[in-house]
Amino acid sequence: MPVSKSYPVILKKLRFQLQFHHHLASKYEQYQLHLLKNEIKKKSAIFFLKVSVHRQSPF
């Protein structure tokens, strides 16, 4: 197969791979954001627990 004929096919394959990788990357980023949000929620919950316990303590 001559290069000039196979070139569009290679481009198509590359474009598809790029789209696929971009899709995976965005999924991964969403997952990381999700983890980060959960972490922040946990930390703020612990913080509020500590504050409320501290307020209720007689010392």
Short summary of the structure?
The chain has 59 residues and is mainly alpha-helical. It has one helix at 3-56.
Provide a descriptive summary of the structure in words:
The longest helix is centred in the middle third of the chain and has 54 residues. The protein is 92% helix and 0% strand. The mean pLDDT is 86. The chain contains 1 helix and no strands. It is mainly α and 59 residues long.
Structural class: mainly alpha
The largest sheet, given as strand count, sense and whether it forms a barrel, is: none
The secondary-structure element order is H
Outline type: rod-shaped
Any idea what the radius of gyration is?
25 Å
Helix amount: over 70%
Distance between the termini: 84 Å
Q: List how many beta strands DSSP finds.
A: 0
> Which residues form runs of ≥5 with pLDDT under 50?
none
Strand percentage: under 5%
Mean pLDDT over all positions:
86
Number of helices: 1
SSE inventory with pairings:
Blueprint lengths: L2 H54 L3
Keywords:
single chain, 59 residues, mainly alpha, 1 helix
